[in-house]
Amino acid sequence: MLRAAVSPVLRQLHPEAGFLPSVTQIRNKKVRLRKQLWMPRAPSKLFKMHPIRSVPQEEIAQYKFLYDRHHMEMLSIKAFYAAEQRRIADDKSEFSQVSRKEEEELQSLLALNEEENRQIAALREQRHQEDFLRRMDIKMKHAEEIREKAKLEEKAALQELQKEMENLHFITHDTLDEAVKRAYHQPTTYNFAISPSGEKICEKTGEYEDK
């Protein structure tokens, strides 16, 4: 069924288009419904006999062969799957036993490693202590050598000073009287004069000495 109508949007945009017809198609279609299951059979099909299809013996034999082969294949697959599951279960049990043994062996090895680490730590501590004592002994010996060297240097300096004092006729408390007598009997003067020519003239002898 066809019906002519004017679009309201087109009428608002173009007022003059109100006289232009627009075609809208409306279809009425019936949907066939299936017969309900509880409804009786149609009278036209009450006495309808379907022809019996005859199947050749070769086709029946082929069907039987295919069915038997499929059945045997399924049995084989089931047997293979059951054997595979049993093997996996056995492997799991064997693997669990092996893993348990490996875990025990690992724990024993870890315990041995810890014991060895403790022994190595004790030996390392002992070696560090021995090294510390040896270094302290070396330092003490070095300090003692430095002190001995300082004493020897001080002793040598005192001896050198004593020699210099003896060479300079240093007057001590013990040699004071002797020095006074020597100075009294051997007078010494240090007066001198310089001549115009640059010669040194001593007061005691009056002799000329080189510059």
Automatic annotation (TrEMBL):
Its main location: mitochondrion. It comes from Tropilaelaps mercedesae. One of its GO terms (cellular component) is mitochondrial small ribosomal subunit. It is found in: Mitochondrion. This is Small ribosomal subunit protein mS26. Residues 99-167 form a coiled coil. Signal peptide: none annotated. The keyword Repressor does not apply. Keywords: Coiled coil, Mitochondrion, Ribonucleoprotein, Ribosomal protein, Transit peptide. Belongs to the mitochondrion-specific ribosomal protein mS26 family.
